[in-house]
Structure formats: structure tokens, C-alpha cells
């Protein structure tokens, strides 16, 4: 019997587990993934998030993982250019964009160090309820036998398409259809720094230096462009850079993507 079971062990779940365990609660965190592993997400951590990592004693681990320190940003919106950096917050004068396999592993390890039990590769299939009250979870590791764990509180931190939210019939609010889509990939050999650039044709790109001397490059386009984009992903990806910043587009064509596949998903759906 646990005080708290947390389903999902990434940005939301592991810190919840860590903070509760640090307060002396008996905590189980489960995730169907194993760590380290990537998640579908770009990597920019806003200053408020970095302040939390620092407060928890984890920012040094992000830095120690050779995550590039970013102190300059290049924004442009339809020909208006802004180059500089946000004012430091509480002495924090840089931002970071760690790969999720780096960030999430640091968070999972911190939860473990705090005393939480973390069960990886465990898929929750249902909540256990008694008289309408959730008292635990049910699930299995891989093809293993079904197991059940009980707790006073069950936290659903299982992200998009949350099983916990579905099983308890959580209310959906502020739901909007996706307005656009995103593709991203990793490139070596680019020394661009951090860019957010929007063009005139409902196209946008971003670049973030990340771990392993790679840059993450992402493009976002309006949903109406998805069908055409899918027919020739690599060329359409490059075409967004050509359209928004022709010089960067030319540089990109001379660069090889690192050995990672592009990823796509709707960019602006909101679910809570
Ligand atoms: C394309 C894209 C780009 C983004 N870019 C940024 C960005 O640059 N900066 C930023 O701050 N945010 C960004 N976000 C948002 C960010 O990714 C999410 O806010 C964040 O991942 C949410 O964390 P989470 O822990 O709630 O969920 P997730 O990261 O989705 O983690 C949920 C975990 O739950 C586990 N899980 C799910 N179902 C089960 C189950 N049934 N049983 C057991 N485990 C389960 C999954 O394996 C997963 O590990 C982006 C999102 C997207 C989609």
C-alpha cells in the first residue's frame, strides 16, 4: 500500500514523485517507457522551469550533461527582427534545451534518489475503484501477468491520451482542433544558435542547440499544408527554411541530418 501512485514518469510525474518522497510519503511512480528514452517534444525549457530545476538541485545535472548554454536568441516575425536575450531571472542568465532522454532520466533518477519506487516498462490498463473511489492501478510489465497496486491517492501524469483521465472520466476543457503540425529532426554541423522565425506563408521554424553537439530543427505549418507536406517530407522541410530565411535554407541543404527520424504531430491541440 502506497500513499501515492503516480502514473507517468516524465516532466510531470517524476517531480511529483520526487517532491512527495522528499516529504516522507511512500510513493510508487510507474511508466510504460524505460529510461533514458526520447519523447515527442521539442526541448526548450523556459526560465521558470529552469528555476524549478535549480530549486530542486537538478540544474547542475543538466549542465553536467553538456547541454549547451544559450545566451542569445534570434526572433523574427514577418520581417521584424529581435536579437538578444531575456533579462536574467534570479541570477539565471541562460536557457537550456536538453534532449528529453537527458532531462527525463535526470528527473526519474531524482525521484528514485528521493526514495520513490520507480517501475519502468509498466503499462497501466485501468484504475482500481471501490465504491466510486480510486484506490489503485492495474497493469502489466510487457507480456507479464497483471499486477495491482493500491494507494491513497493516484495521480495521472500520463500525458496525451491519458489512460487515467479516461478511466476516471476526467472532464475535458479548452479543447481546440489542431491549427498546425510540426516536424522536427536533429542535425550535426550547424552552429546557428537559437532561432524562432515566422514567415509570411503560415510557416515557421525553430532551431535549438542540444546535447551531443546536435541542433534540433523544427518546422510548423498550418494544417491545410499537411497533405502536401507528407508527400515529400524532406524537401518540404527544407522549403520552409528557404521560404522564411533563404540564407539559412541554403546552409541547411549543405548539411546532413543526424541519424534520427523526423517526427510529426499536431502542434496546437490543447487537452487537460
Ligand atoms: C511537438 C511538441 C513540442 C513541444 N515542445 C516543447 C518545448 O520546447 N518546451 C516545453 O516546455 N514543452 C514542450 N512541449 C510540451 C511538453 O512536451 C509537455 O508539456 C510535456 O512532455 C508534458 O509532460 P508530462 O510528464 O505531462 O507528459 P509526457 O511527457 O507525455 O509523459 C507521459 C508519460 O506517461 C507515460 N504513460 C502514458 N500512458 C501510460 C500508461 N497507460 N501506463 C504507464 N505509463 C504511461 C508515457 O510513457 C510517458 O512517459 C511540446 C510538446 C509537443 C507535442
Automatic annotation (TrEMBL):
GO MF, any single term: FAD binding
Coiled-coil regions listed in the entry: none
Domain FAD-binding: 2-172
Domain of life from the UniProt record: Bacteria
Keyword annotations of the record: Monooxygenase, Oxidoreductase
PANTHER family xref list: CONDITIONED MEDIUM FACTOR RECEPTOR 1 (PTHR42685:SF22), GERANYLGERANYL DIPHOSPHATE REDUCTASE (PTHR42685)
Protein name: FAD-binding monooxygenase
Amino acid at each position: 500500500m502506497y500513499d501515492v501512485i503516480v502514473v507517468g514518469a516524465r516532466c510531470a510525474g517524476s517531480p511529483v514523485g520526487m517532491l512527495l518522497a522528499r516529504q516522507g510519503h511512500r510513493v510508487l511512480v510507474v511508466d510504460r517507457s524505460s529510461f533514458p528514452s526520447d519523447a515527442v517534444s521539442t526541448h526548450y525549457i523556459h526560465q521558470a522551469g529552469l528555476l524549478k530545476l535549480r530549486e530542486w538541485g537538478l540544474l547542475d545535472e543538466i549542465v553536467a550533461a553538456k547541454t549547451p548554454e544559450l545566451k542569445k536568441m534570434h526572433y523574427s516575425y514577418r520581417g521584424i527582427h529581435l536579437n538578444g536575450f531575456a533579462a536574467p531571472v534570479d541570477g539565471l542568465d541562460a536557457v537550456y534545451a536538453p534532449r528529453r532522454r537527458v532531462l527525463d532520466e535526470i528527473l526519474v533518477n531524482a525521484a528514485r534518489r528521493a526514495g520513490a519506487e520507480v517501475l519502468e516498462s509498466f503499462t497501466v490498463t485501468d484504475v482500481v475503484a471501490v465504491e466510486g473511489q480510486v484506490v489503485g492501478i492495474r497493469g502489466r510489465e510487457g507480456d507479464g501477468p497483471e499486477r495491482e497496486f493500491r494507494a491513497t491517492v493516484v495521480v495521472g501524469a500520463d500525458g496525451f491520451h491519458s489512460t487515467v483521465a479516461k478511466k476516471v472520466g476526467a472532464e475535458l476543457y479548452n479543447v481546440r482542433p489542431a491549427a498546425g503540425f510540426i516536424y522536427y529532426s536533429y542535425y550535426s554541423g550547424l552552429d546557428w544558435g537559437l532561432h524562432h522565425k515566422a514567415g509570411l506563408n503560415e510557416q515557421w521554424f525553430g532551431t535549438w542547440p542540444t546535447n551531443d553537439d546536435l541542433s534540433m530543427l523544427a518546422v510548423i505549418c498550418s494544417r491545410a499544408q499537411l497533405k502536401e507536406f507528407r508527400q515529400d517530407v524532406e524537401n518540404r522541410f527544407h522549403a520552409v527554411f528557404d521560404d522564411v530565411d533563404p540564407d539559412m535554407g541554403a546552409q541547411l541543404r549543405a548539411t546532413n541530418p543526424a541519424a534520427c527520424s523526423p517526427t510529426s504531430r499536431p502542434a496546437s491541440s490543447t487537452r487537460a
